[in-house]
Write a structure and sequence with these properties.
Elements: H1 4-11, E1 17-19, H2 24-34, E2 38-43, E3 46-52, H3 53-61, H4 72-75, H5 89-99, E4 103-108, E5 111-117, H6 118-141
Parallel strand pairs: 1-2
Antiparallel strand pairs: 2-3, 4-5
């Protein structure tokens, strides 16, 4: 059964992080430069939350906070949903669906190992389905 580690093995464990004191504006610039929808928020080496595009809209813009002066620690999502490296993909999908989130940090004992997104899961499923289709085609019609 595929798990979070199988996705991290393919995509790598690089995760954008920001300190909880970083301003919303600086974080948004980082997200734009890296073309990502979420960053993990840290306090030193400790993971303390997540900040997403949705947080910018709901917790900053909609409430009239100044992005130049508002620290991420005031508007991040915390506590956040996360998973372990051995969490099955089906369970990750269930959590993401129930909580209506698109990003799931992979954390064990306070250490950040990576982040999987709904897009990562979809890409993994497409790859698996394509392999199944090819296998069944070979079974039915022989090798090409």
């Amino acid at each position: 059964m595929p798990n979070a580690q199988s996705i991290l093995h393919k995509k790598g464990g690089d995760v954008a992080t920001v300190d909880r004191k970083t301003t919303v504006l600086d974080t948004a610039k980082t997200m734009n430069q890296r073309r990502i929808g979420a960053v993990v928020v840290t306090d030193g080496d400790r993971v303390v939350g997540i900040f997403t595009e949705r947080d910018i809209l709901n917790r900053v813009v909609a409430t009239g906070k100044d992005p130049k002066t508002t620290p991420i620690g005031e508007v991040m999502t915390s506590p956040m949903a996360c998973c372990r490296r051995d969490t099955r993909i089906a369970e990750c999908k269930t959590v993401m669906s129930q909580k209506r989130i698109r990003h799931l940090p992979v954390v064990e004992e306070g250490k950040l190992y990576g982040m999987i997104s709904a897009g990562d899961i979809l890409a993994s499923e497409v790859t698996d389905q394509q392999a199944t289709i090819e296998y069944l085609h070979e079974y039915l019609y022989g090798r090409r």
